[in-house]
Structures are given as C-alpha cells and as structure tokens.
Amino acid sequence: MPVVSTVLVVEDDPTVARLVEMTLRFGDLEVRVVGTAPEARELLTEPWDAIVLDINLPGTSGLELLRQLREDLGSTTPVVMLSALRHEHEVQRALAFEATAYLTKPFSPDELLEAVRAAV
Amino acid sequence: MWRRYGDTAYALFVLVGFILQAAALALLTWSFIPAASGLFPAATPGRALLGALLLTTTALMGIVGFILAYHVIGARRQARREADVREWTERWTEVVFGAEAPEGPLPPAALEGLLEVRDKLRGSRARAIDQLFERYWRSGVLIRPLRSRRLLKRLDALERLARARLASTFFPVLHETDKADARTRAMAIRASARTLALYPEGPALDEAQGAFAEALDDDRISTGVALEALMLLDDACSGVAIRLFDDPTPRWLRWAAIEAAGRLERVDLTIEIASLVEDLDPEIRAASLRALHGIRTIPDAAQDTVRRALHDDVDFVRVQATRAAELLPFAVVATRLWEMLGDPSWWVRRTAAETMGGHGTAGAAMLGWAARSHPDRYARHMAIQFLFDDQRIDLGTAELLREAV
Predict the structure, then answer these.
(1) Domain boundary assignment for chain B
(2) pTM of the complete model
(3) A56-84 burial, b for 16+ CB within 10 Å, e for fewer?
(4) Which residues of A touch B93 (CB under 8 A)?
C-alpha cells in the first residue's frame, strides 16, 4: 500500500485555503488546514512531509513562523510559501530559511501541486 | 448596507414624514393667528396642538420603525446572501476540480461565488473558470451594468469585472477610464490593471499593455491612482512601466512608473531605471536611485552614474544616492561617504552614517574613526549619534566622545 504524504496548510483566507486543500487532495496528498499562526505552531512539531505557508497571516507572519520552524524547532520539513505580492527581499528571506518554493496569489493549482510534489 | 439598498425607500419615508410635519405646523400656525382662526372655527389652538402632536408622533414612529425594521431585515438578508455565496464558492471549487457543473440559469449568489474563486486562481484552472463565465452569464452580462445611470451600479460592475479578470472584458473596462466621473475612472483603472496582471501571453498582451500605458497618461488620473494601478499589475508591471520611462511621458507618470518598479523589485528593469539616474528632473533622479535601492541591484555599467549622483546639487537626490551606495563596494564609496558625513544637510549626514553602518566591519570601523577624528564637527556628532542609536556604543562612551568633540 503506497504511503500517503501529509501536508499542513497554513492560510487565513478560507477560499484560498479550500482551493489549496482541493489542489493537494487532487494530487493524492493528505491535508490538514489551519488559519492562524498559533494553531500552526501547535502542529509544527508533528511529522509533516511538507508545509504550505501563507506569508500574510494575522499576527505572526508566515516568515516568522518559518524562522521559528527552522531555528527554534530545527525542522527541515519542506516549506512552500504563498504570498500576495512577490517581493524579492521576502523571497530572499524565505530562501535564507530554506523555503522550497515561493508562489504568488492568485496562484496556479498546477504550479502549487508541482512544487509540493517536488518537495515531499 | 443601508446606502446600497435603502436609499429610495428611506428618502420616501422621510419625505412623507416631512410633509406631515409641515402640514401640522402650518395648521398650528394658522390656528394661533386670531383673525385667521375665526375663519375655521373647528381649528381651535388646543385641537390644532393635539393634532400636530399626533402627526409628529406618527411621523417619527413611522421613520424609526422603518429604520429598525430595515436593519433587522437587512442583516438577515445579508447573512443569508453571504451563506449562499459561501455555498456557491464551495460548489464552484469542486467544479474546478472535476465535479459536474450545475444546470443554469443560476442565482446571483452563484456569480458572486464564481468571482470569489476566480479572484484567487491563475493558470489553466482559472481559464476553465473563464469558460464557466461565458457559459452561464457571458461577458456581456458583466459589462451591461457599466451603461447604468446609477453610479453605484457602475462601480459594482467594475468591481465584479476586476475580480473576473476576463481578457475579453479588458478593453470595455479600459474604455471606462475616459469617463467624466473621477470615481469611475479610478475604479476602471484598477479593474483594468487587475485584468492585465493575469492577461494571457501572446500578441494581444502587447497591445493591451500599450493601451493601458496610454490610458494612464491622462491628467485627470492622480499620481496615487496611477501608482496603485501599476502596483496591481504585479509581475506584469515591467511591460507597462518600461513604456512610461521615456521623456514624452509626463513627469508625474514617469515618477509613478519608476516608483512602482522599485517597490515591486523589478530586477528586469534595473538597466532602464539606472539610465534615469542622470535625468534633468531631480524628482526622477531621486526616484530612480530609490528604486535601485529597493531592487537591491545596481548594474555594473551604472556604478559610476550612482557614484556621480553622490555629488548631486539637490540634497534629496544625494540622500537617495547615499542610500543606493550601500549596494556599491565599500572601497568605491568610502571616501565620498566620509565627506558626506559633513554634508550641509542633516538627512544626507544621517544617511551617510547609516550606509557606512550597512557596510559591515569596514564601515563600522570608519564610523568609529569618524566619531573621533573627522575634521567636521557635525560629522563627528552624527557618527557618535548613529553608533549610539545602533547600539554599537553605550551611553557612557557616547558622552565621552561628545565631550571630546
């Protein structure tokens, strides 16, 4: 029986979250969706195969969450970043924290699935 | 909510209440004129006063009752509408991923739901949504309200078209930028920008970008709206901005194009932006330098130009040049930064200190040296202040250095 990869999606916009969830499920991945950084922080310690992380979360930003994941928890879980605007310095910061990919919204489900599949 | 749906009914209610009040007051006034009251024996002052009070109470209760009922009913309708849109958003999401499309005709909530989904997607699935728009509503249904006499209806239509991002509606929306009403123009520019941001690749894209650049070149459009529109183009900004860098474009629009390219960090435009660093207009020179700093790239061929800008006559240009100097090798700019610590402008001195501070150990060492032995007194003060602000020296050391100065 094939092992199903599990993906954590951290996204506060319900429509985007649902679309990301459907995209990943369409690609035969198991998905858990949360809408806030505190909810995500509680789940970060679990063994995810990949994380899809929105940059503009209310309160704690996605980049800060990524920093905590790498520096505080020492996790190497692949992370795909989603952002409303593509700012080079944000991309550089995300890459500095070893984000696997950086996609902008509106997003392409095909690109997202490709990025997550490449990461897991 | 109130303004959107209740304007006419509320205006009628207030008008009826006002007429009743006016009639009551007229009767009351008439009855208190002794000569006149004799003409109408029934309208004694006491009775007229009672009648006026009753009319006032009725009018006020009517208006208050209407407002309360409107809010209760309006809130319920709004909640039901939002639930319907959520349901349709979910349904369309499933359709996008292969579920069977519903049979038409569809309710208005279905259109709102599809707009919500379309607004979040790009690529092949987004194009599939474009086909759903055509199948159920056709782009004409979205465009028709643009001809409405009601401003609110036209603005709603533009908002919908912005979310739909249909390439087929780009030119009709862009045509609205020529309208007399400033709100319609601004909304149309935004809607066109959002559509152009996801315009399909191909020869039509070039034509659309050219038309958009031309539409922006209109004195009735404010710099802020133009800048916002260029920012909304996101990755597609370069194709439009590059058309606006040239000289025939008005100064305010060139400024907006450079500013947008800088804020969006368009690395592909660095060479074109660098060529504007020596423009005749100081605002354009400053914007170009700020943009290069924002993009964090100075092309090799433009390094000398930026170095020359450190000697610009205009202080706000020197400030931006000093900031951009952070991206040049320290050895190339160190001497000039040292001189600029003693610039007549406080802002230039401060930026020079910050730029030095951003140049790592070598920059920090030079700042320390400047704090002790720069020939200019103001330069020494600035170096000390910056080292203290940046927590590189403590208060005691700063005081000692200041005394020495």
Answers:
(1) 1-96, 329-405
(2) 0.79
(3) ebeeebbbebbbbbbeeeebebbbbbbbe
(4) 15, 18-19, 22
